[in-house]
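Quick log. Single chain, no ligands specified.
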Amino acid sequence: MRAVTRVGLTGGIGSGKSTVARMLKHAGAAVIDADAISRQVTAPGGHAIEAIRQTFGSDFISPDGALDRERMRARVFADPTARRQLEQIVHPLVGLETRHQAEAAIAAGSRCVVFDVPLLVESHHWRARVDQVLVVDCRPETQADRVIQRNGLMRAEIERIIASQASRATRLRAADIVICNDGLSLPQLEHLVRQLLRRFGL
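-> predicted structure:
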């Protein structure tokens, strides 16, 4: 049986983590997107919906049957207890689906499985599940500028999101590999990613 390299990929909002994930996927890695799975379990008919309704009330479920993300975002920013309650519902479901997808990728012959997890550092169980942690890093000012251009959010809201995530220093301490994505063009970023491919078995 061929060895499989498990890579935990993380980075703050606006760091370029998703761009790096796409590059790794293009190079042959199986990329498992924890955010996408989280959206799946909180979509209409998702496995988390009924528990969210029972815990927070029907006001937090939109007319189409999905999680009302805007209302929930405001709630968890204001109430750390609500954040923990939501995580206790969603995280086990995300973890289960993540394992299923990883097993399927390995069974299909993938030599590198990349777990794209925005809150990898905050979720302490991830360190034991991966062989290497790859952090995409940049200055907070760069993060904010990118998110403003991409999503049109107000700078104050972006700063609240950044503050709610692990600090830059904490992510860097957890890293086995760091890509500094500040002032790089896409070709330059791709060059850095290509340098890692052999290390990841690709």
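The mean pLDDT is 89.
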